[in-house]
Amino acid sequence: MIRVLLADDQALVRTGFRMILENAGDMEVVGEAGDGAEAVAMAEALSPDVVLMDIRMPVLDGVEATRRVTGAKVLVLTTFDLDEYVYASLRAGASGFLLKDTLAPDLLSAIRVVARGDAVVAPSVTRRLLEKHIGTGEGATAGPDLGSLTDREREVLGLLARGLSNAEIAGRLFLSEGTVKTHVSRVLAKLGLRDRVQAVIAAYESGLVRAGSG
Q1: In sequence order, what are the beta bridge partners of 99?
Q2: Residue 112: C-alpha distances to residues 39, 95, 174 (Å)
Q3: CATH (one of 1.10.8.50, 1.20.272.10, 1.10.10.10, 3.40.50.300) for 127-205
Q4: Which residues have CB under 8 Å from 180's CB, separation 6+?
Q5: 118-146, pLDDT tens digit by residue?
Q6: pLDDT tens digits, residue range 85-114?
């Protein structure tokens, strides 16, 4: 069972999500939070696999709450399809971003993807956001130190940041797909990143990949 925590300041929205998830058969709603601070506390107490996190909430907004949640994957849900929300959420550690009007099958699929450690937002979408925000200096901060990475791991990270899949990276570097997967796992572990989306952000913010590069 995938353990899910719902975080939204609207009780009706939480009720709707609960009905969808509990009818899925492989998901369990372990709690409901009405604001960001409550979401952080409940995530720590209940150890969910995935937190469905609203962006605009009282006390603590969804972006800051996402930053403070540890040990759970965060899937951000909002009515606002704006780049700045997506960007801020991903930088804070979210593994995915969906609109609240997403169809139930797509929502359930996204939760399953995030629960198994993958990201819902495609690297190509992340790259578009980074080209816009980091390319103009908007919201950019000092990136992680890549000094712990080997030359090969830096190479893999650079290709990953350009939106290449493991299979495409393997073809480019003449490696097996399994070897590439191992390199990606080591990059995530060394840099303390949650998933591939976080890795793409790290590559741009560290300067390994520049906005507008091929």
Answers
A1: 78
A2: 20, 12, 31
A3: 1.10.10.10
A4: 156, 166, 169, 170, 173
A5: 777 655 566 666 666 665 444 445 567 78
A6: 777 888 888 888 888 888 899 899 999 988
